Amino acid sequence: MVKQQLTPSCLFSGAAACMAVCFTHPLDQTKYRMQVLKSSNSMLSTMYRFGLRDGIPSLWGGLSASILRQGTYSTARFGLHNHLSSQLLQTSGRDRLPASWNIACAGVSGGIAGLIGNPTEVVLVRMCADGAKPARDRFRYSNPLVGLWRVWKEEGAKAFGRGIGPNVTRSVLMNVSQIASYASAKQSLLASNNMTDNITTHALASLIAGTGLLQIVRNGLRDEGPRFLMKGWTPAWLRLTPHTVLTFVFMEQLRRLSQLTVSQQQRDTAKM
């Protein structure tokens, strides 16, 4: 029973994240380029500079790597969270999980997903940052699969572990702030405000989850000091908020579409 629920949830979550990143990728790319340049220029001026130099379509350079990363990392973190929470619901006999249990499931699944997604994160960073580097220093991966192969061939498997500590920590915080916040917010909205399970509720709950990302800021300031805010944080935060909203809205709509399709198939079968 759990496997039947897990598979479509994984697919919907990964697909929704891939759809969302198509809209937010220019901000993600700008974040990595600001980090490479170590510049104090604003996000908008940085985007304008590269858009003017290379053309507006260039802001979506490296999108294939973003899609591959979301297809692995987000599928894993949402799918694992769904699996863990489903198991806990079954063993406990509860109708809904307490917030603390949601947080625990989100943290564990986020950490595992961070490990799974780190190789694609390495390639993503390189493909996005290439445009900010001198021509002689660029990796020039034609696509992320070629990038993964070249990293393995030229640098060995250890290269896939670069930045794994911060990435796993970020993934844990991200999952807790997004998934746990969204699940709890949605449950509360449906239970206490006479709201129905529709796109308005999904958007509001996802917006609440997006504002939960302030925890990441607090941790960044604590661990790295004020310079944390100068390392491409503005486009990162501006990307994460709409990315969170779009991901959950797309995910819920894909689930609803799937349910409608199944219902229609059942009605058609009953008529036969």
UniProtKB/TrEMBL annotation:
PROSITE patterns: PROKAR_LIPOPROTEIN (PS51257), SOLCAR (PS50920). Keywords: Membrane, Mitochondrion, Mitochondrion inner membrane, Repeat, Transmembrane, Transmembrane helix, Transport. Gene3D superfamilies: Mitochondrial carrier domain. GO terms for cellular component: membrane. Coiled coil: none annotated. Solcar repeats lie at residues 8-87, 101-188. Transmembrane segments: none annotated. The keyword Thylakoid does not apply. InterPro entries: MCP_dom_sf, MCP_transmembrane, Mito_Metabolite_Transporter. It is a multi-pass membrane protein. Its main location: membrane. Pfam families: Mito_carr. It is found in: Membrane. Belongs to the mitochondrial carrier (TC 2.A.29) family. This is Mitochondrial dicarboxylate transporter.
